[in-house]
Amino acid sequence: MGRVRKVLTGRLAVGALVLAIAGAGFGLYWFQPWKLWQDETVDEALPGVVQASEPPAAAPSGKPSEAPSPPARPQALASGELISHEHATSGSVKLVRLADGSHVVRLENLDTSNGPDLRVWLTDAPVKAGKAGWHVFDDGEYVSLGRLKGNKGSQNYTLPDDIDAARYTSVSIWCDRFDVSFGAAELARA
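^ thats the sequence. predicted structure below, dont judge the formating
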């Protein structure tokens, strides 16, 4: 009887060890805690900003040719400052109409923590400070503009053509894995 008890106790110990290792592996995959110490900086230029051009060339008659009309420039339609929610977050957000009529959400000087599944959301939710703002963004309408390119820097996120940008009032850096906002900005119309 003592030998049977030792065998059962050994099998239970091995089973518990296997479950503990599997649980630790799943926890590491799910939470990805190392990302809290890894920064990814992305610095993109605003699309459609034209650099200074050369002066107009002279026409064959020797007179300078007429300068073409200046190209349309991007126009900021709304902007706001990011506030912290789940993680310390700072920077500014702009909703910009480009010269071709398309729209982008631009994050400038973003500084937040990295996370396992961060997205940029354009939402109709109000921005609330503190813990009250953690879970409000998935209650209303939102458009996911894609994965956050980097947790630091300046980045652009293109709005789909069928989206009416005027219907949305805020931007959130959203952790899709844990359904929580890292930070958000209320968009004030220009």
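The mean pLDDT is 82.
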